[in-house]
């Protein structure tokens, strides 16, 4: 049991802490709006991911394996949404303000995970490794561990973003940062699309 828990934790940490579309949005949000205003997006992304994991574990995985082209369509939709978010970040006004309504929110975080090719691949890989067809106990354990690790990992990205925000003292620095983050997000979306489709 200890070995299983350790393996689940390592897998969850590796998939949550490594850079991806959601992490990049969190860094940009943390830099622009601070840690506290980024928490709703983190909560939405974490809950969205765990619900995707549970939904796949309770039966959607059978549909996905029966119709593999479904993932191709999800990749197209997901990459398009992530590119849209990247565009919004890249073209954001070069100012740090807590009144800006463009701050990523809970709903965007939730939807982004369901449209994120990396999230689908992480869920499918994790379930393939840890799922037991005879019992839902491994799914419950895996989901619980993943929730805690994912939330903490994404929070660390927000803290990193808030620290970056301290050095963004001029509109020109903010513009460069926004364009860089938006471009990275679009590049990441394109990579995930081609990786999953081809």
UniProtKB/TrEMBL annotation:
Tree of life domain: Bacteria
Organism: Desulfovibrio gilichinskyi
Record-annotated membrane-spanning stretches: 41-63, 70-87, 139-162, 174-194
InterPro entries, alphabetized: LeuE-type
Gene Ontology terms: cellular component: plasma membrane
Membrane topology classification: Multi-pass membrane protein
Higher taxonomy: Bacteria, Pseudomonadati, Thermodesulfobacteriota, Desulfovibrionia, Desulfovibrionales
GO molecular function, one term: amino acid transmembrane transporter activity
Compartments in which it is found: Cell membrane
Any one of the GO BP annotations: cysteine export across plasma membrane
Chief localisation class: membrane
Name under which the protein is recorded: Threonine/homoserine/homoserine lactone efflux protein
UniProt entry tagged with the keyword Cell membrane: yes
Keywords: Cell membrane, Membrane, Transmembrane, Transmembrane helix
Pfam family of the protein (one): LysE
